[in-house]
Amino acid sequence: MLNKRLLIKNLLAYNDENSFYDKKVQLNLGNREGKAKFLKHVCALSNSNPENNSYIIIGVDDQRNKIIGVDFYDDSKIQNLVNAYFENPPKIQYENIAFPRLPRHKVVGLVTINPEQKITALKKGIWKYPKNTLFLRQGSNSKPTTKIVLKNTNKKIVKAIEKNAQNNIKLTLDGVFDFMNKHSKELNPNYIVFKDHFVLCWAGIKKVVEGKTRYSRVDIKLVNEQIRLFYSALDDVEIEYNQQSFIITEYIQINISNKNSTSRDLQEFYPLEKTIINFKENGTYNIATELLFKPPIYDAVVLKHVYNSNNVILEKLIKNIPLTKRDLIDLEQLPITYLICSLNGFAEAKTKLEIAKSYLKSLNDKSPYIKLKEVLRVLRKVKYGRGKT
């Protein structure tokens, strides 16, 4: 099995990007330009490596070749984007790789592009790239081209890099001890061995709600490959496991209520998504996800009032007008209430969230910004769960 942390280190040891790997500070898949640039690199790497894996590393300062990390990214539907735009789409996987010196909420993103052995091309246009555009790697650049002849030029060197990143017992044990030591007793750190091959560590704050055990601040890592499979700062999570599977069911709290109330009504929690990690006898695993979310429906008159109140607060933030005590209370719930509005047909609510992002990030109290990131994650899951790209 590959230790993905070692793999990233070995790839970065080449310093400059080349025909089998690329590195980025971050990905922006929230707009057509960002999606187009990502698709360009995937297409170019796939066509340049017909017989070996190729890689994109996310969270690296390109100038200094230094790992700086990015936020955890859990969009398992990234393959849908590739399938929607490519003829002969390669199989790709986005993984969150933990590094010891990064803050707990930061990881390095690793995109693995499996060899397709066919020419990959855009089957429909996106941004400035028209339908049928071909891309190929030329050194460290992904460039459009009119003709491609698939060549096997990187197979030996990539195989050597991957061989040097193989796991061993010491690396696995170090990974388990590192996880257990970094998570306090309050987080109940545990480890489980699946199929004699995989060591999965997980932690979370335990609570019992009407006889059911749930967890918050859940962190899950597949130690053998140094992959962080799941990380949440806010969700309520149910965890189940058997001899071959580890099952995660996420819940999110959505309500419009008295902002001074500290009560947490069970009915306010809605199932969002179920993730099942299946471990197999042949030393492989797969991850299946199922979107469970059904948006709650609220009175349109109430929502219109909430939406207008949010807009007033956002306008004050933009114009740097001091907020009242009531505004500060409402600000705490602004991401959630904009989410509710978006799910109930307010078309501009998501745009308002995107506008609010930089202003909430600059506040001393980071709670609204953290909630906003979770809300955008929910909207992304709902969007891809409905099959949109």
Which features does this protein show?
Methyltransferase, Cobalt-precorrin-4 Transmethylase, Domain 2, single chain, 389 residues, four-stranded antiparallel sheet, 19 strands, nine-stranded mixed sheet, alpha+beta, 9 helices
Write up what this structure looks like.
- This protein has 389 residues and is of the alpha+beta class.
- The protein folds into three domains: 4-163, Methyltransferase, Cobalt-precorrin-4 Transmethylase, Domain 2 (2-Layer Sandwich); 169-291, no CATH class; 300-385.
- Helices cover 33% and strands 28% of the residues.
- It has nine helices and 19 strands.
- Strands 1, 2, 5, 7, 8, 12, 13, 14 and 15 form a nine-stranded mixed sheet that branches. The protein has a four-stranded antiparallel sheet with strand order 16-17-18-19, with helices on one face.
Task: Give the secondary structure arrangement, pairings included.
Layout: H1 4-12, E1 21-24, H2 32-48, E2 54-58, E3 60-61, E4 66-67, E5 70-71, H3 78-85, E6 86-87, E7 92-97, E8 106-113, E9 121-122, E10 134-138, E11 141-145, H4 155-163, H5 169-182, E12 190-194, E13 198-209, E14 212-222, E15 227-231, E16 236-241, E17 245-253, E18 269-279, E19 285-291, H6 300-318, H7 325-343, H8 349-361, H9 367-385
Parallel strand pairs: 1-2
Antiparallel strand pairs: 2-8, 3-4, 5-8, 6-9, 7-8, 7-15, 10-11, 12-13, 13-14, 14-15, 16-17, 17-18, 18-19
